[in-house]
Design goal:
The protein has 6 helices and 7 strands. By secondary structure, it is of the alpha/beta class. Strand 2 and strand 3 form a beta hairpin.
Length: about 180
């Protein structure tokens, strides 16, 4: 098993955190893992992406040119990464801010309205874990038990009071993801 994933959006959307949670979850599951972030100099609002590779074998390189899965959180990232999903792969995107929806017919496409749902819950900080829950529903590469451990490992101790809300958001994300094709 090998899953090569890119998560891409704006800084402040929890892109790098989502990747870190997945990476720690993979470590808890005894996978070989790479986590390679890329971001602009801006703290918030600039582009950010992270490549995560989870594998039950040695990983030869953390650099990827094609992805099994892309999680897209803004139009700029859609424009850049839609074409880099392998045929037969998966593209998941939050519809908020996407003006040109994906057009490929050789990949599975899912939407998740996590921005809208986290706003309804009154906590935008749950956005990224909701997306993560949708991803894990579609691509269950790590167990939810290991995700809970990865979540705790990746969050600073001051944020542990939000662990149960984040775990609920993960489960909610699994409920609201919808396949487009």
């Amino acid at each position: 098993m090998k899953e090569t994933l890119i998560i891409a959006g704006f800084g402040g959307q929890g892109v790098l955190s989502m990747g870190k949670i997945l990476a720690y979850s993979g470590v808890m599951q005894d996978f070989e893992v790479t986590w390679m972030p890329s971001y602009g100099p801006e703290m918030r609002g600039g582009t950010a992406n992270v490549t995560v590779i989870l594998s039950d074998r040695k990983i030869s390189s953390p650099i990827a040119y094609q992805y099994d899965t892309a999680i897209i959180l803004n139009q700029q990232s859609m424009d850049k990464f839609e074409a880099k999903v392998r045929p037969g792969g998966t593209l998941i995107y939050d519809t908020n801010g996407i003006t040109h929806h994906p057009t490929r017919t050789d990949i599975r496409i899912y939407t998740i309205n996590a921005a809208e749902e986290s706003a309804k819950l009154g906590n935008s900080k749950l956005f990224n874990t909701m997306i993560l829950g949708g991803y894990l529903k579609v691509c269950p590469v790590v167990t939810l038990e290991n995700v809970a451990l990865g979540l705790k490992k990746s969050l600073p101790e001051r944020a542990w009071k939000m662990l149960s809300e984040n775990e609920k958001a993960i489960r909610h994300g699994a409920e609201i993801i919808r396949q487009v094709r």
